[in-house]
Structure formats: structure tokens, C-alpha cells
Amino acid sequence: MSSDTFIAVAENIHCTLSRKVGGAFARQNDDGTGEILYKDGGEAKCVPVPECFVKNTDWENGKVKHIAAAMWQGFYGNGEAQQAGADYVQYWARLQEAKGATYQEINVDEFPAEQDERMKLMTWAAGVVQEATTLPLSIDSSNPDMLRVGLDACDMSRSKPMVNSVSLERLDAVELAAAAGAVVIAGATGRDEMPNTVEERMTNLDELTSILKGKGFTDADIHYDPLVFPISVDGKNGTNVIETVKAIRERFGADVHFAPGLSNVSFGMPKRKLINTVFTHMCWQAGLDGAIVDPRHVSQESLQTMDTTTEAYKIAQALLLGEDDFGMNYITASREGLI
User: Fold this and answer.
1) What global pTM score does this model have?
2) Could you give the angle at the alpha carbon of 57 between the alpha carbons of 232 and 124, nearest 5°?
């Protein structure tokens, strides 16, 4: 039962995201400075990498957290460098909206600063993103104070903002979301531990749903996250999510939504984009109508037109259904250039 719509919570404005230094999107100059490279409307542009980023371990290992670096320039920089940082963040906001995003998610939890500075940055980032896009924000943080600051910065004249996330172990976030009139990503985490089976996920979600309904959340306000774990760890991790999607749709009805981080399934595996797109399609066929995704790669159109007859699709599908022991067929196909 595939959905007729897809709610894309756009994931690219996250301080966790990295670029390879020396690749097409980041370089080190002869004088030791660094730049983040991109094209906006066909025009080549760059963001100077702050010195503190060039001197950190990530840079030494050939990586740069490009969103965090741009935010640093936009927040702390001066003159042209400051404008370049803000422009880069807004470039991603515009691009994601153009590619069909429904929410612009912001996460600054790994920005290299103290918590009070990160909260100020969240306010800045929310303002900069909302200047460039008409979409509502999704505020993603493990810290309730950060969620509160992010929600306070949301333009409430738009559609309801989103809180990522609430769960039985994060009931304080339920109160914050209710007070702000936000929608929520409702995770299947238990009060004390992670669920392993479909039944454990549903038990946790039954209790959480009851709490949410008691706080006034409607079905349409709830975006479920069945919790996605790497297929490289356990061959059942793909089918557990797919079967939980089916169970959620059956138990809670047609008006609830979904917003899992589906890319978690491919951690530790080669050709991650293939696994992610095939897994999204499989979940969509099971009733999923949204996820935290890169809207450049996943959209309603891409799901509707995906060719499921290709060898690459079939190999990834077998992996995700637990039919490929230890993923050896998939890994071999990747090494041999078959996918």
C-alpha cells in the first residue's frame, strides 16, 4: 500500500555533515587556507573555511563539516566571509525547497562551541533559513533547551513547525511541542532501552500515542519513527522496520505520518545511496509517507518511477529482506562493479 504523497524532512542543514577535502566540494589552498566550493545558479562560489576548522582533527583526516564551517562564518565572521557563510546556508535551504522538501530541518548539536553559544546559533540559523524559504522548520536536538530556543525562533505564520523528536524517554519534549503547537516525530524508543522487535516497537508507540493524544495532538500531528538500525549489524533490521510501518498504518490509521531516518540502515555498507533509495521505496510500498531524507535523491516522483526490475535493486532488496547472509552477495557485487 504505497502512499500518494511523500513528506520530505530535508536533512542537509546539519552540523554533522562532512565534505572530503581535496574533492569537488572542498579544497586546501597553497597558503594553507581552505574553501568550501559550490555552484549557485551556475555561478561558482566559495566559503572560506574558518582557521579553527583547518586546524582540527577532521581537516587533518581529510574532512570538513561544511555546514558547521559556513555557520561559523555567518555567525562569527566579518565582511565578505560572514556573508558567504550565510549565503551557503541559504543556498541549501533554497535547493531543498526547490527539490520538494516539506520541512527544513536544522541541527546544531555538534557545532564546536559551548551550549549557550549553540543556542544563540540556533536562533541565527532559524532566521537565516526562514529568510530564504517558505517552508516550516524541523528543530532537531537531543537537548530540550535547544528545542525550546529553536521553536521560539520559528515563524508561526507558516505551517506548524516540527520537533525531532519525542519518545517515552523524552517526554519533556512532548510538553515543549504541545506548548509551541508543533507536530512531532514520535520515536519508538522505550523508557529505558531500545526495542528489538516489531512487537516491542508497537508497545512503546501505543503508550506514547496515548500520551500524545492526551496532550491534544491529532493523528496528522504525529510522524512516527519506527527506529532504523544498520542492516550490517543484524539482517532483520530491514524487515523489522518494514513490518512496523505496516503495523503502524494498520493500528493508527491513514491520517498519521512517518519521519524515520532511513539512511541509518546503510551504515557500514558500500554504495549507501543505493541501499537508502531501495529501502525508502520498500518502506513506501508498505505505507510510509515520509522520512528524513535528502530531497535531491528521494521524492514522490522518484519513488513512483523507480525501476524495481534492475539487478542493483534486486541485490539491495535481498540484503534488506535478510536474504543475503552477512551482506556478502551485496558486498561482492559492489566490489565487482555490478551495482
Assistant:
1) 0.96
2) 90
CATH at 258: 3.20.20.20
Domain count of the chain?
1
pLDDT in tens, 256-307: 999 999 999 999 999 999 999 999 999 999 999 999 999 999 999 999 999 9
Q: Which amino acid is at 321?
A: L
Instruction: Please check whether residue 274 lies inside any domain of the structure.
Output: yes
HEC-encoded secondary structure of the chain: CCCCCCEEEEEEEECCCCEECCCCCEEECCCCCEEEEEEECCEEEEEECCHHHHCCHHHHCCEECHHHHHHHHHHHCCHHHHHHHHHHHHHHHHHHHHCCCCEEEEECCCCCCCHHHHHHHHHHHHHHHHHHCCCCEEEECCCHHHHHHHHHCCCCCCCCCEEEEECCCCHHHHHHHHHHCCEEEEECCCCCCCCCCHHHHHHHHHHHHHHHHHCCCCHHHEEEECCCCCCCCCCCHHHHHHHHHHHHHHHHCCCCEECCCHHHHHCCCCCHHHHHHHHHHHHHHCCCCEEEECCCCCCHHHHHHCCCCCHHHHHHHHHHCCCCHHHHHHHHHHHCCCC
- Gyration radius of the chain's alpha carbons: 20
